[in-house]
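Researcher: Quick test of sequence recovery. Tokens follow.
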């Protein structure tokens, strides 16, 4: 094998190793995403129950201030208020979702790069014969 062919082979091996690492990482991020979904769903249900029973009278805004809620919240907007009460859980859910999607994009890009290197390797190894 020529030096150039060996260099491309090393690059292929490095990409394969990185893909294996990312595949392990995607399991962890997938579990984080699933937990974030579950936590958000539970928090939303609890918040809606609290609103229905009148146990919540104010909501904390992202700037730290609080806003009083109306005494009688119509059913048509109760879920919107409940979502506001669960903003931290929603943030964690969105963050986990973005991590997961970002990791999938990295894997796809690495796979494309690997395919390109494999094509170069085949071409160079054919020329070396």
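Model:
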């Amino acid at each position: 094998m020529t030096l150039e062919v060996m260099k491309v082979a090393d690059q292929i091996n490095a990409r394969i190793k990185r893909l294996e690492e990312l595949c392990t990482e995607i399991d962890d991020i997938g579990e984080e995403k699933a937990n974030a979904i579950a936590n958000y769903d539970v928090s939303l249900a609890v918040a809606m129950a609290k609103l229905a029973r009148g146990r919540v009278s104010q909501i904390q805004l992202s700037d730290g201030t609080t806003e009083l809620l109306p005494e009688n919240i119509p059913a048509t907007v109760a879920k919107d208020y409940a979502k506001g009460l669960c903003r931290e859980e929603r943030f964690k859910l969105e963050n986990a979702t973005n991590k997961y999607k970002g990791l999938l994009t990295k894997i796809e890009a690495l796979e494309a790069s690997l395919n390109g290197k494999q094509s170069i390797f085949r071409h160079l190894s054919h020329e070396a014969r």
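Helices lie at 3-52, 75-85, 87-128.
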